[in-house]
């Protein structure tokens, strides 16, 4: 049996990256002859959430309940996940490669003494079970053999496209009330602050991202880029130098110390493509680079490139988009 930790949004919905993990679990199930897939959620789910997970082929939804789950505690989530796993006998434990998913499964790995593979994008043979995962901030790929059981791994965001199953699962809800040790609640979230509004949009889940680097010229050089982003219904992502210079806020930064994105299309404008930035965008399915330097790393790695000044190229693109939509 395959067990998948599913993260739930404040609105009570399965987050996209968790639905992607269930989709990959379904591919793994098919390769293994149709082994069942169960999901674990924290808190009592709405009927709609159970229905969505059933549509993705989930047999049972195990809901971890009790005061220990009133706020996030990585060790407590791992203890509950292992409690379900030990009774269900799952041979695979998975989660989305989010900060919480990676933390919880790291606890699971430590408690079981089994290596964990983070940010997996695909799997190869089943005997031995081999996965391919992102390393060095996504700048390289590594094959890793998971010979011990349970196999424990997280799935990199947007490595697969979330899609419902051809045949729905039973979607049986099982309410769990595991006993959680006090030691598992020592490190937990005790308070939260409202974040500042993210005016750049959801970079990590965006299908199109417009990027901007030093080539913007100044804090006043983003007007055309923001217009393009609006026309494409895309967020703006920027390089580290842009935030270091104070031209744009840090939450827009793409890179090893910013957001890591995997859009269908990334349009980096005036970005040289240093390794720090490349680590955050290398998994984009297509890259259209706009730069004056034909030898810039971003240009040489791009799917397509336009050699020119972004302040001339972007207004022309915007005008053409508006003309075609008129």
UniProtKB/TrEMBL annotation:
Domain Electron transfer flavoprotein alpha/beta-subunit N-terminal span(s) in chain numbering: 2-189
Gene3D superfamilies membership: HUPs, TPP-binding domain
GO MF term (any one): electron transfer activity
SMART domains: ETF
GO term, biological process aspect, one: fatty acid beta-oxidation using acyl-CoA dehydrogenase
Binding annotation for FAD: 214, 239-240, 253-257, 270-277, 291
Alphabetical keyword list: FAD, Flavoprotein
Pfam families: ETF, ETF_alpha
Cofactor(s) essential for the protein: FAD
SUPFAM superfamilies attached to this UniProt entry: Adenine nucleotide alpha hydrolases-like, DHS-like NAD/FAD-binding domain
Manner of cofactor binding, per the entry note: Binds 1 FAD per dimer.
InterPro entries in the record: DHS-like_NAD/FAD-binding_dom (IPR029035), ETF_a/b_N (IPR014730), ETF_a/FixB (IPR001308), ETF_asu_C (IPR014731), Rossmann-like_a/b/a_fold (IPR014729)
Family designation: Belongs to the ETF alpha-subunit/FixB family.
Job of this protein: The electron transfer flavoprotein serves as a specific electron acceptor for other dehydrogenases. It transfers the electrons to the main respiratory chain via ETF-ubiquinone oxidoreductase (ETF dehydrogenase).
Quaternary state and interactors: Heterodimer of an alpha and a beta subunit.
Protein name listed in UniProt: Electron transfer flavoprotein subunit alpha/FixB family protein
Taxonomic source organism: Nocardioides zhouii
